[in-house]
Each structure stands twice: as structure tokens, then as C-alpha cells.
Design goal:
- This protein has 261 residues and is an alpha+beta fold.
- The mean pLDDT is 78.
- The protein is built from four helices and twelve strands.
- The strands form two sheets. A six-stranded antiparallel β-barrel has the order 1-2-5-4-3-12. Strands 6-7-8-11-10-9 form a six-stranded antiparallel β-barrel.
- The protein has a domain of 77 residues: Beta Barrel (Thrombin, subunit H), CATH 2.40.10.350.
Length: 261
């Protein structure tokens, strides 16, 4: 190994001496206090400073990446915080409306939060966060401050299953508020129902309010259900049908009232 080093030195002796002499010369130049030499030192430093640019640029780039990551994290946190504030504001507004509704009705009602929608494969339903522990019983009307949405059918110790009025098997006695015609509501879609066999002589109009008839042990009289949006004339028949749009969008319900018997 030493032989290889020795041969290498012999082969490149001129270059090695040049590097050594340049090093010695640089040392004397940089340590010299002569004004002319100092000026030369400044010029050399100005040239050499470009050597540091790549490293400086990489450090700056690395810092920008770290700063960008931090700002992204802070932005996500602020967005989540804003969403939480908005949810709290909307919930407070809904609860204030519920409190106002509770003060405006004379019957006894129980406010309950909705846990989940579509909890049974047999029919459209809601799962409520309350049951026997807060006084809920089976076959009680379930409403919001906008109108009827269904009835309780299965009540457990701490949860309740609600059968929704947009289920194909749901039926409810209703009354057209202006014409006073009574009939049976049959669901059509999530937001609409049908009232059949209305006499053609009954003056039903689009926009007419539909309310509960009161001919039921479950639903009290006079609660809003929806509005007439279409009149279906039937050929060669003495009857007509009315399509109504439900007041409540069940897909957006988060809190409900259960009417105590």
C-alpha cells in the first residue's frame, strides 16, 4: 500500500507542489495587512462567495418546505375549527327554535336527538337517542317544528326506532285545511305523498296546507304535514288525486319531538 502511495506522489509531484505553494501563497496573502493586499482579499472573497450560493439556496428551500408544511397543518386546523364553530352555531339555532316551539304548544312533548337514519332493512326509519329512560312509549307521534315525520314503533331502555312517513307502508289520516276534505296519505317519494279519491267537486288548490285530521290515537289534530303541489285529474272518474310535498326534509333532521300520549 505504501508503495502505491509513493508511486502516486512521484507521478503527481508537480501538482502536489503546486497545491502546496498555492496554499502557502494564499496564507500569506490573507494574513498580509497591506492595503493593496486587503483589496485583493476582498475581490477574492467576492468571487468565492458564489461557491456558497448552492448550499444557501438549498437551506432556504428546505426552510420554505418546512414552513409550507407547518402552514398547511395550521390551515387544516383552522378549517376544522371553523367547521366546529359553524356546527355549534347551527345547533344552537336549531335548539333555540325547538325551545320556542315547545313554549308554543300546549301538549307535552319530549325533545330527542337523532342518532342514525335507516336502522332497519324493512322500512324507512330513524334511531333516536332516548327511550324508556325519558318517558317515550310505542306508537307516539314524532314531529319537528316544521311538521310530522313519523311515529315511534320500537322503544328500548335508551333508544327508539321511528317509522317515517315517507315509507311505502306508512299511512296517516290528513285533512286539506281550506276545503276540509279528509283522506289518507300514501307516500310516493322521500319528499312527497299522495291523497287519493278526492271528489272532483272539492275545490282543492295548489299551495293548500295539509294537516293531520285527528282521526287517530297517534297523531293529534291540526299538525302540519305538507302542501299541495299538484292536482291529478282522473279520466272517467268522479275523483281526483292531490300530490303533496312534505314540510320536513327527513334526510336533514337532527333533533325531533316525541308527543307523549
Amino acid at each position: 500500500m505504501f508503495t502505491r502511495i509513493y508511486n502516486f506522489i512521484l507521478d503527481y509531484i508537480e501538482y502536489i507542489l503546486l497545491v502546496v505553494l498555492l496554499g502557502i501563497a494564499s496564507f500569506f496573502i490573507l494574513s498580509n495587512e497591506n492595503p493593496d493586499v486587503r483589496s485583493l482579499q476582498a475581490e477574492i472573497s467576492s468571487v468565492i462567495r458564489f461557491i456558497h450560493y448552492p448550499a444557501k439556496w438549498l437551506n432556504t428551500l428546505s426552510g420554505l418546505v418546512d414552513e409550507n408544511i407547518q402552514l398547511t397543518q395550521e390551515n387544516i386546523q383552522l378549517k376544522l375549527l371553523n367547521v366546529n364553530f359553524k356546527e355549534t352555531f347551527l345547533e344552537n339555532r336549531r335548539l333555540n327554535k325547538m325551545l320556542g316551539f315547545m313554549d308554543s304548544v300546549s301538549i307535552e312533548i319530549i325533545p330527542v336527538k337523532v342518532l342514525n337514519k335507516g336502522v332497519t332493512p324493512i322500512y324507512n326509519s330513524l334511531l333516536l337517542d332516548g327511550g324508556q329512560n325519558i318517558g317515550i312509549l310505542p306508537y307516539c307521534a314524532v314531529i319537528t317544528n316544521q311538521g310530522v315525520i313519523g311515529k315511534t314503533i320500537s322503544v328500548g331502555p335508551k333508544t327508539t326506532v321511528v317509522h317515517l312517513l315517507n315509507d311505502v307502508n306508512f299511512r296517516m289520516g290528513i285533512r286539506l285545511q281550506n276545503s276540509r276534505h279528509s283522506g289518507i296519505l300514501e307516500p310516493m317519494t322521500d319528499r312527497a305523498g299522495l291523497i287519493k279519491e278526492i271528489p272532483k267537486t272539492t275545490p282543492v288548490s295548489v299551495g293548500e296546507e295539509v294537516i293531520t285530521s285527528g282521526y287517530s290515537d297517534i297523531f293529534p289534530k291540526g299538525f302540519p304535514v305538507g302542501k299541495v303541489v299538484e292536482i291529478q285529474e282522473i279520466k272517467n272518474s268522479i275523483y281526483k288525486n292531490a300530490v303533496i310535498k312534505f314540510n320536513v326534509n327527513i334526510n336533514t333532521v337532527e333533533e325531533v319531538f316525541v308527543i307523549k300520549k
